[in-house]
Amino acid sequence: MINRVRPGVDPYQVLVGGGVEDEDSGLEAALLREVREEIAGEATDLRPFHRFESDKGETEHFYTARVTAWNFDDRSGPEFSRDDRGEYLFEEVPLTAEAVGALNLMPPQIKAALLAAVDGGALPAAA
After folding, report:
1. What's the pLDDT tens digit per position in 104-124?
2. pTM score, two decimals?
3. Where do the Nudix hydrolase domain residues begin and end (predicted)?
């Protein structure tokens, strides 16, 4: 998870990801680029997990993946060079109902989907 700390806003968490850029060949290529930019990581085993339409009318796609390596100190996304964006703090969170339930995860729809998947056994709980 990435903890977002911004002035005047309660801290919240987001998953690694972002929009599809013109140079991305598709959703999975965009996700792999975002993993490289946001956590200087590599991911495998990408699988579609959940999608929904946002309040802005955009379809948001979420994937599960195995992140095999990362180095948060080497992240390179453009958002990290802007002082007005607040802090981005990396945190590993166990994939349990208790841990996910304690998060202020945005958007709320992905928190609900994760909790349902963990409770229903669709995702393995992590110790």
Report:
1. 999 999 999 999 999 998 876
2. 0.86
3. 11-87
pLDDT for 127 equals 37
CA atoms in the 13 A half-sphere facing the CB of 101: 8
Which residue in 8, 21, 6, 3 sits closest to 82, CA to CA? 6
Order of strands across the sheet that contains 2-6: 9-14, 2-6, 87-90
The residue extents of the domains of the chain are 2-119
Phi, psi of 72 (to 5 degrees): -60, -25
Closest-CA residue to 125 (of 98, 92, 90): 98
Which residue, chain included where needed, has tokens 């991305």?
Answer: 24
Element (DSSP H or E) covering residue 55 = none
- CATH number among 2.60.40, 1.10.10, 3.30.720, 3.90.79, domain 2-119: 3.90.79
